[in-house]
Recover the amino acids of this structure.
């Protein structure tokens, strides 16, 4: 019996060692925003303990990480890359067999829009549409001008200030009594939502997901009744010189996991994990809200996620990997 046990342990160790050799050292870009650092930490833990990889986090950011992967083949993995920002370069890297689009890290894509608190829609269901918001414009009190209604835009200097301003004009919001309020910063914008929500007041403005704010406060994205006109959005809505903007909903921004071709070829089982791994905005909003409330870093949020949301991550990996990760936890 002892001999059988020893042989089994030897086989297990050998299998683990060969899996680690196959996977080898894996470098993962740890981007400098919360959703990306959570995903990077989750990936590191699952690759290390579930697939026997020698996984390591290295600092990253969208442009330098993408460029380095194409030119130098490092890092092996960019867990959350907003791919539109360097789409041509990434597509060229794929065509030259340097990179692969492994999967979508945010399965809904990055989400932008004009939002109002859900309690307003519960009270006035038509306010889920832009026509309903305009009808009840007087409810949206301006913080400094009682004669006008407030539309909270993107902070000055951000790219979304251009699109929000064009859509403000395209939707005829000024004619309905709205004026643009510049919140000054991301903190100012999120603070205005928190203040309105805690007082049960009306709020209307631009926001995006995934974010901690949308995890804490239930908001409804206002329907413009226009659908998404991607050509209009790319060719006019986002362009500073656009003179005649037309209504369009924001198209989702694709958010991918990118790997090098060398990693995908060397470690096909670990690569398959990235093809399946993805967060909904709703789940990520909740996770980001927990991070903010607990002042947690990416590693602490990773442990919280793996311990509290097994039904999500266990669907990404085979049962033997689930067992290894659970043992490591």
């Amino acid at each position: 019996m002892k001999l059988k046990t020893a042989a089994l342990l030897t086989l297990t160790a050998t299998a683990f060692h060969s899996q680690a050799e196959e996977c080898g050292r894996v470098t993962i870009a740890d981007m400098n925003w919360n959703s990306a650092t959570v995903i990077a930490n989750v990936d590191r833990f699952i690759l290390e303990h579930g697939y026997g990889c020698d996984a390591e986090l290295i600092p990253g950011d969208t442009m330098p990480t993408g460029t380095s992967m194409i030119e130098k083949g490092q890092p092996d993995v960019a867990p959350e890359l907003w791919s539109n920002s360097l789409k041509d370069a990434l597509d060229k890297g794929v065509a030259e067999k340097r990179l692969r689009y492994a999967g979508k890290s945010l399965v809904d894509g990055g989400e932008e829009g004009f939002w109002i608190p859900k309690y307003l829609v519960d009270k006035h269901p038509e306010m889920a549409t832009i026509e309903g918001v305009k009808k009840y414009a007087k409810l949206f009190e301006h913080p400094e001008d009682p004669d006008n209604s407030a539309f909270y835009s993107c902070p000055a200097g951000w790219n979304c200030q251009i699109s929000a301003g064009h859509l403000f004009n395209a939707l005829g919001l000024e004619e309905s009594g709205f004026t643009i309020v510049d919140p000054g910063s991301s903190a100012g914008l999120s603070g205005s939502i928190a203040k309105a929500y805690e007082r049960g007041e009306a709020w209307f403005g631009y926001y995006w997901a995934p974010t901690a704010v949308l995890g804490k406060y239930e908001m409804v994205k206002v329907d413009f009744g226009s659908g998404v006109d991607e050509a209009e959005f790319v060719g006019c809505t986002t362009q500073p010189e656009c003179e005649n903007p037309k209504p369009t909903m924001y198209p989702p921004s694709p958010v991918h996991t990118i790997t090098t071709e060398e990693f995908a070829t060397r470690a096909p089982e670990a690569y398959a994990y990235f093809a399946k791994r993805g967060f909904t905005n709703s789940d990520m909003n909740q996770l980001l809200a927990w991070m903010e409330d607990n002042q947690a870093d990416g590693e602490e949020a990773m442990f919280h996620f793996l311990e509290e949301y097994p039904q999500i991550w266990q669907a990404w990996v085979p049962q033997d990997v689930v067992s290894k990760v659970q043992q490591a936890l």
Remarks:
- Residues 1-20 have pLDDT under 50 and may be disordered.
- The first strand starts at residue 25 and ends at 31.
- Residues 111-235 form a domain with the D-Maltodextrin-Binding Protein; domain 2 fold (CATH 3.40.190.100).
- The chain has two domains: 24-106+254-328, 111-235.
